[in-house]
């Protein structure tokens, strides 16, 4: 009922959101990943939908249900997430990058399951080689007809300094900072908004409420639909 009475501040707007972790294959049965439950991204998708937006959620593997009325596209790797986002970014008015994207993938991934013993010999631990993944947010932010972009930064230290620098480096109007150790696996979070005007801290809130506050902040800052 509370959801129904949220102000429709994003009515008619198309919002594209990434959420959750990405996973990068070592072999068909093993991955390396980032720690992310997806709760924050899914709460933002739900809040954007409540606010009247048409929402597309590109999600890495999570244990969460799709929020009502949200179009969800499932991906595993950062490269798959990049492809899915690029296919939808031109049609979006607003892009919110919440996913914990793996910065690297395994360059020498095996197409069969690695065995501890191959033939007679003990294989020993695999020597993994890594190659960089595309930066999804930076690529969307550089599109000529880019949507209005929001980034996230979960840091463990120097939050203010790192977040402000990250916003400038990615060339985006709004970045949301939080402390990884307070937010990860938790049902509450403390957002700090960084924009051209400076730093705007929000109180510690349940992720549902923090998401609604963020959607209000995005609606106020982003350009309105042409009439
Ligand atoms: N991001 C992305 N694609 C990537 C890496 C990050 O879209 N390959 C997005 C995240 O979803 C987030 C923002 O960029 O919105 C910042 O991610 P973060 O990992 O904090 O920044 P990085 O630029 O990867 O820097 P670092 O990990 O070194 O702090
Ligand atoms: Ca990163």
TrEMBL record:
The keyword Ligase applies. Its EC number is 4.1.1.36, 6.3.2.5. GO terms for cellular component: phosphopantothenoylcysteine decarboxylase complex. Pathway: Cofactor biosynthesis; coenzyme A biosynthesis; CoA from (R)-pantothenate: step 3/5; Cofactor biosynthesis; coenzyme A biosynthesis; CoA from (R)-pantothenate: step 2/5. Binds 1 FMN per subunit. GO terms for biological process: coenzyme A biosynthetic process; pantothenate catabolic process. GO terms for molecular function: FMN binding; metal ion binding; phosphopantothenate--cysteine ligase activity; phosphopantothenoylcysteine decarboxylase activity. Residues 10-219 form the DNA/pantothenate metabolism flavoprotein C-terminal domain. It catalyses: (R)-4'-phosphopantothenate + L-cysteine + CTP = N-[(R)-4-phosphopantothenoyl]-L-cysteine + CMP + diphosphate + H(+); N-[(R)-4-phosphopantothenoyl]-L-cysteine + H(+) = (R)-4'-phosphopantetheine + CO2. Keywords: Decarboxylase, Flavoprotein, FMN, Ligase, Lyase, Magnesium, Metal-binding, Multifunctional enzyme. The chain holds residues 178 to 404 of 408 of the full protein. Catalyzes two steps in the biosynthesis of coenzyme A. In the first step cysteine is conjugated to 4'-phosphopantothenate to form 4-phosphopantothenoylcysteine, in the latter compound is decarboxylated to form 4'-phosphopantotheine. Catalyzes two sequential steps in the biosynthesis of coenzyme A. In the first step cysteine is conjugated to 4'-phosphopantothenate to form 4-phosphopantothenoylcysteine. In the second step the latter compound is decarboxylated to form 4'-phosphopantotheine. It comes from the Bacteria. Residues 15-227 are annotated as: Phosphopantothenate--cysteine ligase. CTP binds at residues 103, 113, 134-137, 152, 166, 170. This is Coenzyme A biosynthesis bifunctional protein CoaBC. In the C-terminal section; belongs to the PPC synthetase family. In the N-terminal section; belongs to the HFCD (homo-oligomeric flavin containing Cys decarboxylase) superfamily. Its cofactor is FMN; Mg(2+).
């Amino acid at each position: 009922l509370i959801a129904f009475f949220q102000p429709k501040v994003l009515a008619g707007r198309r919002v594209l959101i990434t959420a959750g972790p990405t996973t990068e294959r070592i072999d068909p049965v093993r991955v390396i990943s980032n720690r992310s439950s997806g709760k924050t991204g899914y709460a933002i998708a739900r809040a954007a939908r409540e606010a009247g937006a048409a929402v597309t959620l590109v999600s890495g593997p999570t244990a969460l249900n799709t929020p009502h009325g949200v179009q969800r596209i499932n991906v595993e790797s950062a490269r798959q997430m990049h492809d899915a986002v690029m296919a939808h970014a031109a049609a979006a008015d607003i892009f919110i990058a919440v996913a914990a994207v793996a910065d690297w993938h395994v360059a020498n991934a095996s197409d069969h399951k690695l065995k501890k013993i191959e033939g007679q010999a003990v294989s020993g631990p695999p020597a993994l080689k890594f190659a960089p993944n595309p930066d999804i947010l930076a690529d969307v932010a550089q599109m000529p007809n880019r949507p209005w972009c929001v980034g996230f930064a979960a840091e463990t230290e120097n939050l203010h300094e790192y977040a402000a620098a990250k916003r400038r480096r990615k060339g985006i109007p709004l970045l949301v900072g939080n402390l990884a150790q307070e937010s990860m696996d938790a049902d509450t979070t403390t957002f700090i908004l960084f924009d051209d005007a400076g730093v705007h801290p929000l109180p510690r809130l349940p992720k549902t409420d923090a998401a609604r506050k963020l959607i209000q902040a995005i609606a106020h800052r982003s350009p309105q639909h042409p009439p």
